[in-house]
Amino acid sequence: MSKTAAPKLKTRYVCSNCGSVQMRWAGKCPDCGEWNTLVEEVVDEAREKSRQGARVTGSIAGSIAGSIAPQKLSDIQADGFQRLPLAIGEFSRVLGGGIVPGSLVLVGGDPGIGKSTLLMQAAVSTAQHVGPALYVSGEESAQQLKMRAQRLGVGDSDLYLLTDTNLDNVIYQIEAMKPRLAIIDSIQTMYLDTVSSSPGTVSQVRECALRLQALAKSQGIAIFIVGHVTKEGAIAGPKVLEHIVDTVLQMEGDRFHAFRLLRSIKNRFGATSEVGVFEMAGSGMVEVTNPSEAFLAERMSFAPGSAVAVTMEGTRPLLVEMQGLTSPTQNPMPRRTANGWDYNRLFLILAVLAKRVSIRLHDQDVFVNVVGGMTIEEPAADLPAAIAIASAYKSAPVPMDLAIIGEVGLSGELRSVAQLPARLNEAAKLGFKRCLIPKLSRPIERPPADLRILSARSLGEALDLAFGQQR
Ligand SMILES: Nc1ncnc2c1ncn2[C@@H]1O[C@H](COP(=O)(O)OP(=O)(O)OP(=O)(O)O)[C@@H](O)[C@H]1O
Ligand SMILES: [Mg+2]
Ligand SMILES: [Zn+2]
């Protein structure tokens, strides 16, 4: 009756948040308490056993019994690791000032956003200025990589390429070559033979990342891994990865615009508030060293419905144009559309405009748009948005030399915002002559000399100042 032993398959559930293994599915992970994080994985029991054996005998780095003795803190040399310079300034800054040897960096982002492009540029830069660099791709052929390199104008560089998905082999090659920087594109395509689930599953991704982390630390090689991030963060559990790696960078931007933001979400070697701005071009990711200027480049003079906001991206002030448009409608449910700005915030601002300054837009469709594909999440954009809408409605342009900052409260009062001095400096730097801000209880410390500060207590006062009393 019994046939040859088929592999004994078993189903188990792995939490994509904490990585714990459960025998049966549950809505809530019993270990970390997160909801909907358990992912089904099919494992081959026999292989799983041999793998656990391997773990005990120490093939998984760090668990070798007795191999690493405790050290006294005072005995440890902190020789202040020398960061590897990275010629891409915006990228370097986000990392905290260059690449840290022995660090494991995860670069996440939506499909097609430019992860491979930017990392190839970083690898080429390392190969040119620092030392050998290796680009491992499990997604593209060597020819495809060569074509990308040619498009980036670096087809003849000394970068090494490896197209493989077997992580044991990749690690063997890295140990043999000892590059200064290795790129793994992507972690979801890599697999270890000892892990029985398929590539991209939580178990594979976690074990692969642990091995790469051990490799990076033991050899002092900087390793960047690409991680595909689904909207729900499901399949490959970016959370599990985030715990393992030293640094998490996220690439953002929308596919209809060329601007890309590189944000640091976690960094064991630097501040997390840094943001790098790039523009996707035919020749690759081009640094945008003066993003405010780029975001304002296409602004039309004397067009009603346009106001310039000064927002913060981390510690970096950014001037962006906010546009408003109103158009009469018979529709009892007029349209409200916010692009790059919070939809609920738009309702709130419309209510305040109606109630506090008698600008009633119940018979108008209202659109708000942030130019350049940026998304603004902070309340400092309330006042510029309100003024852009009012400007559109009255067909009265906002003066070109005026920048606007401020949160709007429910009673129409204006509230101060964080990091005002940095914002004012950026506005002055870009040639704005006046800046409209909420009235403060304390004087501003060292305001820029050539910037006139107009301060208003309420939305009404702000509109008077913006449109020169002609309201
Ligand atoms: N000739 C070109 N000119 C301008 N942009 C291009 C050109 N070729 C490709 N691109 C841009 O490059 C993007 C792909 O970049 P890249 O492969 O680096 O993204 P990725 O994040 O690695 O994507 P994936 O998730 O598929 O690996 C395309 O979406 C496109 O916008
Ligand atoms: Mg890619
Ligand atoms: Zn969990």
How do the strands and helices of this protein lay out in sequence?
Blueprint: E1 9-15, E2 21-22, E3 38-44, H1 45-57, H2 89-94, E4 104-109, H3 115-129, E5 133-137, H4 142-151, E6 160-163, H5 167-177, E7 181-185, H6 202-219, E8 222-228, H7 238-244, E9 247-252, E10 259-267, E11 275-281, E12 284-287, H8 291-296, E13 306-313, E14 316-328, E15 336-339, H9 343-357, E16 364-370, H10 382-394, E17 402-404, E18 407-408, E19 414-415, H11 420-429, E20 434-438, E21 452-456, H12 459-466
Parallel strand pairs: 4-8, 4-9, 5-6, 5-7, 7-8, 13-17, 15-16, 17-20, 20-21
Antiparallel strand pairs: 1-2, 1-3, 9-10, 10-11, 11-12, 13-14, 14-16, 18-19
Helix pairs in contact: 9-10, 10-12
Magnesium ion (MG) binds near residues 115, 116, 139 and 185.
Assign the CATH class of the largest domain. Alpha Beta
- What strand order characterises the main sheet? 6-5-7-8-4-9-10-11-12
Number of strands: 21
Number of domains: 3
Second CATH tier, the architecture of the largest domain: 3-Layer(aba) Sandwich
Give the uncertain stretches in residue-range form. Answer: 54-63
Percentage of β-strand residues: 25-35%
| Estimated structural class | alpha/beta
Helix content bin:
25-40%
- Hetero groups: adenosine-5'-triphosphate, magnesium ion, zinc ion
Terminal-residue CA separation: 92 Å
Q: What best-fitting shape do the alpha-carbon axes yield?
A: elongated
Radius of gyration, taken over Cα atoms and rounded to an integer in Å: 27 Å
Largest sheet: 9 strands, mixed
CATH topology (fold) name of the largest domain: Rossmann fold
What's the average pLDDT?
Answer: 86
* Fourth-level CATH superfamily of the largest domain: P-loop containing nucleotide triphosphate hydrolases
User: Helix count, per DSSP?
Assistant: 12
